[in-house]
Amino acid sequence: MKKENNILDIQPKETARAFEAWRNYRDLGPKRTHRKVSDAKTIGGKKVADYHTVVKWSAKWKWADRLTQWKRDQEETFRAKEEEAIQAMVARHTRVSLILQNKASEKLNLLNGEDLTVKDALEYVKEGIRVERQSRGEPEMISKVTGTVATNFIDELNKAYDDFKQNSRSSKK
Description:
Mean pLDDT: 81
Largest sheet: 2 strands, antiparallel
Number of strands: 2
Shape: rod-shaped
Helix content: 55-70%
Low-confidence stretches: none
Radius of gyration: 32 Å
Strand order of the largest sheet: 1-2
């Protein structure tokens, strides 16, 4: 089975000079033109080719198609590196949030029951959950629909706190 030639590689029967001209064209950036390629000098100090030859090579060796493929490859490489960086960041943030949660938990264990209000405890829980969710790329709030009423976890925590306060007041009377 014959291996397909990558459009970005030197093509069968393409000369080294034509391929060098293509690479010069590619590397000129967004303001590239055939004229700039024909005016460029090679490593040896000679011109790569005259303007008309550059235009012919561009058509014959499909520089526009090559450039499109090269840009796609560059974007794919960039996206892959960006995804790796994001994954590393998430891992770092998750590690830090877990360390912070453990440190906070150690500190909370040292507190006397009177030192910590129920409201403080709920705030600590909510903040720990928020930081962990954020570091894992999850939304801060997850809404769910129960019947026709939309609720979320934080609302449920606040309601539980209000119920607790109400029950505490009732039991003190």
